[in-house]
Amino acid sequence: GRGCGVHRAVPGAHGMKLGAAVMVGCALWLTAAHGQAQAGPEKTFADAVAALERGAVDDAIDRLESLADSGFSHPDASFNRAVAYVERARSENARPGDLGRAVAALEETLLARPGDAEAEQALERVRGEIARRRAREGAEPVVAKTSLGRAVVGLLPEAVWAGAAALGSFLASVGLALRWLSESHRRRVAASTAASIGGALLVLCGGLAFTARHFRVASRPAVVVAENARLLDQAGKPLVQKGGEPEHVSMPEGASLFVHERSGELVRIEWGTTVAWVQAAQVRPIGGTP
Description:
This protein is of the alpha+beta class.
């Protein structure tokens, strides 16, 4: 019945197992420059795990958010933060955006550890719970189509596009050299063909690699952490339709988007094919606060 059931995906209850806690403690120990610096985040993490074990969800959230704000990043810490937010969303102390923050933490987990089956299942459950809650409130499902550019670039990792472009450059160079050196007509034709294929690879994959890098540098993935995030113009006013009437368009909790820049209390976002502004407090970039 109640809640999205993410906590049930974690054997042993509300948080990470002791073995996972020890693993993160070891990672902290290996990366700490001084013993005193190490003790801070290590103790904070241990205290957060203990708080989750005894059901002190707010305390666990405060400690895990403190770790995130300090720059500490580990997929298990992010997963535990998601569990804590889901637990609070299921309680009488639930706050608006708890499930959206759980989505953000799980996206952060998967960004750091792709293929984490438990995190993927938990993310699916949380998004399903958000959809069910919206349906109970009579809200229409809102789906934003991915822009064509991001859809094409996202087919392969940036490094693969760059590698294919490098291969194209090599083929083009070798083909041109062989065409210039060869006296045989057949070899010159073969060299020209290789140069043409290499040139096409260089242009196409090089362009996609450049675009992928631009997306990575110019924007950050983010998640809506409010029940609804209304789309605004740069002045902070609701977007208007062509006829001059305000558009009542908002992004639902847990929606994925990209943040481009911040101006005061607003951030410019890309949601599918829509580019607009929203209140910065209503979205959370993956890996940190806006």
